[in-house]
Amino acid sequence: METPACENYRAVYLTAEDLRIAASIIYNAYHDDPFFRDVLYRGDLHLYEQKLRAAIREELNELWQQEQTLVGLFEEDRLVGVVCVFSQQAGIGEGRFWHWRLKMMLNTGWKSTQALMSKESSILEHLPGKNCAVIQFVCVAPFEQGKGLGARLLRAVTSWCDEQPELDGVGVFVSQQSHAHLFNRHRFIPLTHLTIGNVEGDLMFYKRQPDEQ
Fold first, then answer.
1. Which helix (H) or strand (E) holds 62?
2. Can you give the pTM of this predicted structure?
3. Where in the chain does DSSP place strands (E)?
């Protein structure tokens, strides 16, 4: 059952006009993410933040161009949460398109670009089939946290997944235990433990439930 606070929010697909604010929400939520710290931080905080903003911007633009699933959580007209999902059929991992590689390399460096692709390839390798989706970003704006909105976003993802007959399920790499507990409560189960760069975490998977409403 939705709490009174959650009832005031709606999950809908993002438009092109929403991408700038979505990028800002993702940046603030992922500023201290262990993987991005490992890949992008080289002792200069200002440079790290520049690279992180650029990486998020390029990734959002690429997901949009490929017509992947980008969902926003809104309170009236105010965007407060974002979840981004890509399918295995999208050009990800070692299959990244050359223009994405070039833009990402110019903004973050070649080693960082390689690390981003390596993470995706590792996730794809361990998914249970060839018809799965992967959560790239899921986050709530800092001033909206603690209201159960992260759970609301995950319910949107699992409901979306259940409605996709071509999908077997959706996976996500989780490197923080508190996040793992949240995913587990929404029927994401650990598939395998992964070490990506210097970051350890679990690949978790939600199996599509086509008969559930």
1. helix 45-65
2. 0.88
3. 9-13, 69-75, 78-87, 132-140, 169-174, 188-196, 199-207
